[in-house]
Amino acid sequence: MMNDLVRRQLEMSLATLERTRNDEALVDAVARAAEATAQAMLRGGKLMIAGNGGSAADAQHLSAEFVARLTVDRPALRCVALTTDSSAMTAIGNDYAFEQLFSRQVEAIGARGDVFMGISTSGNSPNILRALQQSREMGITTIGYSGNGGGKMAALCDYNVIVPSETTMHIQESHLALEHIFCMIVERCYFGPEFGR
């Protein structure tokens, strides 16, 4: 019985990945967002990433791939997860509001020409929406990784990667695959098309 559950859940995950693979707008958004991020980094900019819960873990995971490496040794790339500074986050949450957790950090360390990636499976996380608004005000390129049709954040993003699902865990599974691909494309655009082959 549990074996059937395992197979059924894997089938559902694979079905989401298949829909994601066949979504031309999504595939194009990943590629264009990665190209824009590489160009920003080549001009001295950085990538800032934020999310809540499992998406916070994704932010840290993806940031580690940029700062350390994805698959091949290369120089570090400028990236920071805004989900890791517990002192800043608790101070902002306590002194201001949970909705400002990431927007205050963008205000503090972001600069025109940077890139901000917000990850929200619902597309409606208030603190991600505030960070996207702050980024746009500062001339920072915005990328949204979401599901559920994109939610409110879709209107605030220069590039929307919207997984065609309403199931949180399957959205997250697809996000992780797409985040790795995003990093790989940034590397190729930054270091040259032959990098990593």
UniProtKB/TrEMBL annotation:
<comment type="function">
    <text>Catalyzes the isomerization of sedoheptulose 7-phosphate in D-glycero-D-manno-heptose 7-phosphate.</text>
</comment>
<feature type="binding site">
    <location>
        <position position="180"/>
    </location>
    <ligand>
        <name>Zn(2+)</name>
    </ligand>
</feature>
<keyword id="KW-0479">Metal-binding</keyword>
<dbReference type="InterPro" id="IPR001347">
    <property type="entry name" value="SIS_dom"/>
</dbReference>
<feature type="binding site">
    <location>
        <position position="125"/>
    </location>
    <ligand>
        <name>substrate</name>
    </ligand>
</feature>
<comment type="pathway">
    <text>Carbohydrate biosynthesis; D-glycero-D-manno-heptose 7-phosphate biosynthesis; D-glycero-alpha-D-manno-heptose 7-phosphate and D-glycero-beta-D-manno-heptose 7-phosphate from sedoheptulose 7-phosphate: step 1/1.</text>
</comment>
<dbReference type="Pfam" id="PF13580">
    <property type="entry name" value="SIS_2"/>
</dbReference>
<protein>
    <recommendedName>
        <fullName>Phosphoheptose isomerase</fullName>
        <ecNumber>5.3.1.28</ecNumber>
    </recommendedName>
</protein>
<keyword id="KW-0862">Zinc</keyword>
<feature type="binding site">
    <location>
        <position position="172"/>
    </location>
    <ligand>
        <name>Zn(2+)</name>
    </ligand>
</feature>
<comment type="similarity">
    <text>Belongs to the SIS family. GmhA subfamily.</text>
</comment>
<dbReference type="InterPro" id="IPR046348">
    <property type="entry name" value="SIS_dom_sf"/>
</dbReference>
<feature type="binding site">
    <location>
        <position position="172"/>
    </location>
    <ligand>
        <name>substrate</name>
    </ligand>
</feature>
<keyword id="KW-0963">Cytoplasm</keyword>
<feature type="binding site">
    <location>
        <position position="65"/>
    </location>
    <ligand>
        <name>substrate</name>
    </ligand>
</feature>
<dbReference type="InterPro" id="IPR035461">
    <property type="entry name" value="GmhA/DiaA"/>
</dbReference>
<feature type="binding site">
    <location>
        <position position="65"/>
    </location>
    <ligand>
        <name>Zn(2+)</name>
    </ligand>
</feature>
<dbReference type="InterPro" id="IPR004515">
    <property type="entry name" value="Phosphoheptose_Isoase"/>
</dbReference>
<feature type="binding site">
    <location>
        <begin position="94"/>
        <end position="95"/>
    </location>
    <ligand>
        <name>substrate</name>
    </ligand>
</feature>
<keyword id="KW-0119">Carbohydrate metabolism</keyword>
<feature type="binding site">
    <location>
        <begin position="120"/>
        <end position="122"/>
    </location>
    <ligand>
        <name>substrate</name>
    </ligand>
</feature>
<keyword id="KW-0413">Isomerase</keyword>
<dbReference type="InterPro" id="IPR050099">
    <property type="entry name" value="SIS_GmhA/DiaA_subfam"/>
</dbReference>
<feature type="domain" description="SIS">
    <location>
        <begin position="37"/>
        <end position="188"/>
    </location>
</feature>
<feature type="binding site">
    <location>
        <position position="61"/>
    </location>
    <ligand>
        <name>Zn(2+)</name>
    </ligand>
</feature>
<feature type="binding site">
    <location>
        <begin position="52"/>
        <end position="54"/>
    </location>
    <ligand>
        <name>substrate</name>
    </ligand>
</feature>
